[in-house]
Write a structure and sequence with these properties.
The chain is mostly helical and about 230 residues long. The chain has a domain at about 20-175: MetI-like (MetI-like fold). The chain is about 80% helix and about 0% strand. It is built from nine helices and no strands. It has helices at about 1-5, 10-40, 45-60, 65-85, 95-120, 125-130, 135-165, 180-190, 195-220. Helix 2 (about 10-40) runs antiparallel to helix 8, helix 5 packs across helix 7 and helix 6 packs antiparallel against helix 7. The longest helix has about 35 residues, at about 10-40.
């Protein structure tokens, strides 16, 4: 226990990095998910095919492979282009940016299917009723599509978010000092690796527990007046 107290600041710093990484990647994933859902439901054939390729490729490649590919391969590609064109010098990609961007892109593919399914679950007659009442597209989205889409999407969203929060642990392999990286470093330097990994286990469990409580409360809010089977 004394080792945990000695390294508590390091563990808390890693926890804060993990939380920031999860939240930033969540914003990216939600933006890509909404865009991807719009593209898949669009009448534009090119947009549908592009969204289909995106979700198929991203969901078919292991997350760790994508993180390593973006961080190491992306940095090599950017510097090669800069050297060949002379437009910029050496660029050092931030570990945080690479991790958040890659995780956001990965889960954007999963959120695409979650949001697409939620939108398709909305009765078409409600949208047609809004159109017949003279509502604009923005009003239809705010008052008809969005509230119901959130309710239908929340179960899948909750599952994706909890998995995404745990997936942030993978960025430790590229040297980002998140919770897992700091816990492993402290455990290896003190010879108490099991103790620090157990501490990381508890912290992740607390974070996922808080997330589950918040999302359940959000689900109850958007499900008011709904009769469940």
């Amino acid at each position: 226990m004394e080792f945990l107290l000695e390294y508590q600041s390091q563990l808390m710093a890693g926890t804060w990095v993990t939380i920031k990484l999860a939240l930033v990647s969540l914003v990216i994933a939600m933006a890509l998910g909404l865009l991807g859902a719009w593209a898949k439901l669009s009448s534009n054939r090119f947009a549908r095919r592009l969204a289909g390729i995106y979700t198929t490729v991203v969901r078919g490649v292991p997350d760790l492979v994508l993180i390593l590919l973006v961080f190491f391969g992306g940095q090599t590609a950017i510097n090669s282009i800069g050297f060949a064109t002379g437009l910029w010098g050496y660029v050092d990609i931030s570990k945080f940016v690479a991790g958040a961007g890659t995780i956001g892109v990965i889960f954007g593919a999963y959120f695409t299917e979650t949001f697409r399914g939620a939108i398709m679950a909305i009765p078409r007659g409600q949208i047609e009723a809004g159109i017949s009442c003279g509502m604009s597209r923005s009003l239809i989205f705010r008052h008809i599509i969005w509230p119901q889409m959130v309710r239908y999407a929340l179960p899948g969203f909750t599952n994706n978010w909890l998995v995404q929060l745990k997936t942030t642990a993978l960025v430790s392999v590229i040297g980002l000092q998140d919770l897992v990286y700091n816990a492993f470093t402290a455990g290896r330097s003190t010879g108490q690796l099991f103790t620090f990994m157990a501490a990381a286990f508890v912290i992740y469990l607390v974070l996922t527990g808080i997330s589950d409580v918040v999302l359940r409360a959000l689900d109850r809010r958007y499900s008011r007046g709904v009769v469940r089977a």
